[in-house]
Design brief:
The chain is mainly beta and 167 residues long. Helix content is 11%, strand content 43%. It has a 6-stranded antiparallel sheet with strand order 1-2-3-4-5-6, with no helix packed on it. The longest helix is centred in the first third of the chain and has 13 residues.
C-alpha cells in the first residue's frame, strides 16, 4: 500500500519537470505512418523511402510548411515462404529528416529508428520501436511583427537557436 502511494506521488511530481513539444504536421501521414510510429520500420519485406511537402494557408505570408524525407527497412526479414521462418523475430531500422517552418519559428530534425517485431500468433505481430535523434529550434526575432515597439530590443532583432536530443 505504501509503495502505491509513493509511485503515485513520484508520477505526479515528474509532470512538473516535463515540457511539451510541437510536433511537425503531416497531412497525409496515413501514406507514411513511419514518421508517426517508429514500430512500423522494417515491418514489410522491402526497403522504402518517401519524401513529402506540406504547405498550409496558401496565399498568406509565413504559412506553416513542412518538408521531410524518410526511409526504413528490415534487417534479416524472415522468409515467409518457409513454414519454419514464420515464427522468427525480426528487426528494422530507418530514419527521417524534416524541416518545419511556421513563420518566425522553425524546427529541423534528424532521427534514427530501431524496431523489433515479435510474432505472437500466426496472424498477429507485436511491434516495438524507438526514434532517437536531434532537434533544432530556431526563432528569428527579425520576422516578428509587434503592435507596439517592444521594450526589450533583443526580442525584435535577435536570432535564437537551440539544439537538443530527442527520443
Amino acid at each position: 500500500m505504501m509503495m502505491r502511494k509513493y509511485i503515485t506521488l513520484v508520477t505526479m511530481f515528474v509532470g512538473f519537470f516535463l515540457y511539451g513539444q510541437q510536433r511537425e504536421q503531416y497531412s497525409n501521414y496515413i501514406m507514411n505512418n513511419f514518421v508517426i510510429n517508429p514500430a512500423v520500420g522494417g515491418s514489410h519485406g522491402y526497403w522504402g523511402a518517401k519524401m513529402g511537402y506540406r504547405k498550409q494557408w496558401v496565399g498568406l505570408d509565413n504559412g506553416p510548411q513542412t518538408y521531410f524525407l524518410s526511409f526504413h527497412g528490415p534487417l534479416g526479414f524472415p522468409d515467409r515462404r518457409r513454414r519454419r521462418d514464420k515464427s522468427k523475430v525480426h528487426h528494422g531500422v530507418g530514419g527521417y529528416v524534416f524541416h518545419d517552418d511556421t513563420g518566425p519559428i522553425s524546427y529541423n530534425g534528424a532521427f534514427g529508428s530501431y524496431s523489433v517485431h515479435v510474432p505472437v500468433s500466426k496472424k498477429s505481430i507485436l511491434s516495438f520501436g524507438l526514434f532517437a535523434g536531434l532537434k533544432e529550434f530556431r526563432l528569428n526575432g527579425n520576422s516578428l511583427k509587434f503592435v507596439e515597439t517592444p521594450i526589450d530590443p533583443l526580442i525584435a532583432s535577435d536570432r535564437f537557436a537551440s539544439l537538443v536530443p530527442d527520443a
